[in-house]
Amino acid sequence: MVVINFPGDFEYDKLLPPNNNPLAWGWQDYTDFECQKSKNQAKAQELLDLMTEVSTDAWNAGWMNGTEFRLWEAALGKCGEWGHIQISQETGEKLKNLSDLCGGWWIYHRGERFLSLEEWEKLAVYAKSLDAKEREAVRFQNTDSLHNHL
Question: Scanning 9, 46, 124, 147, which has the fewest C-beta atoms within 10 Å of its C-beta?
């Protein structure tokens, strides 16, 4: 079993520039806009579709928390059980190939976002550096922040 650390929305807010409001655009217009950041828009859309499909098969959720991190592990050859499925070596290779062709990776932060491979790899390194204590502290901090805004 692969244990994956991943940032939450509040950490993403600190790490990434603000994204455009996907709710104001409509989903397809927004993802088309995000695909423009890639080297190959068709392959970027295909990668997003595959990532969403795997998450849906595994969890019955279009994008389960941590999908981008678990599927990156699969793209690097660390396939295996995730949710209700086994991620196959073939799926991992397809994810890696599509990522290479479009020059990036998708994350979900207040909507689907396309990051260049350089941006993604920095985020993935940061996520791996998180330990349980830090994640727990961030979770409580995020809860307090939410209560302050209500």
Answer: 147
